Amino acid sequence: MALVSLRNDPFGGLLGLQGALEQMLARPAPPWSHGPSNATVFPPINAFSDKDGALVIRAEAPGVDAKNLEINVEPQRLTIAGERHAANEGEKGFHRRERRFGHFSRSLQLPADLDPDQTSASYADGILTIRIEKAEAAKPKRITVAH
Amino acid sequence: MTTQELAPKEKQEITESQQTKPGRYYAPDVDIREDENSIWVWADIPGVKQESITVDLDHDTLTIRGDVALVDYEGLTPVYTEYNVGNFVRRFTLASSARFDVESVSARVSDGVLTVEIPKAQHARQRRIPVGAA
Q1: Greatest pairwise CA separation for chain A in angstroms
Q2: A residues 89..118 contacting B (CB < 8 A)
Q3: Which residues of A touch B73 (CB under 8 A)?
Q4: The CATH number of the domain where B74 resides is what?
Q5: Interface ipTM > 0.90
Q6: Interchain pair A38, B82: CB under 8 A
């Protein structure tokens, strides 16, 4: 299920992405994922595969100190841990307090065909992106026919 | 320092008034605090680049809006999803616009958190009136 190409449909790009995500949200979780399909653990995560079969994980974690983010990857497990500090803890005068703060740590079970040595992570605009390449052995290989 | 475990919340979708551009819109979580000199608004708008944020103050209505960067999702196919990606918009009515110095409203964004400061008009700031002896 490919996402709508942005070049063809500038107004529908967001709709296409949201439609694809919405369809996924309605499905039961695939066997290799941990936990229920709707997040009860912070940060909420979306996992994508790209054209090369690499796994790209996006986590919504605004206001996190990137230096203190702990990302650990093992052959079939990814762990993301960190803390969201409250800037104004204990101060009075709040009209509304909807944002939540505290420690977080969550683990994801990963598919077996990834290479944890090829993991990269970046944090921008409150979104943590982790990319794990597919293992060489798992990539499709062209077989030449002897004749 | 709090030791509570952090849990995520469901995104609140905006459904009342239609937006002109297609796509789902969500209300960002906000903290609003008032001190002696200003009203502060912090909004969680992850995935929005600085140039896609607009903060408008029209009379007594503050509107915060941010469009997510779709280019990050080109070529990706979802395999597991827990949250939907959408633009953010939220509107607040300030208690009384006369009390605020509209010209000096400032906003900045860092790591997906938008901070808006709305300074109170000079004459509205609280003053402690010294009491002298008669």
Answers
A1: 81
A2: 89, 91, 93-104
A3: 3, 17, 48
A4: 2.60.40.790
A5: no
A6: yes
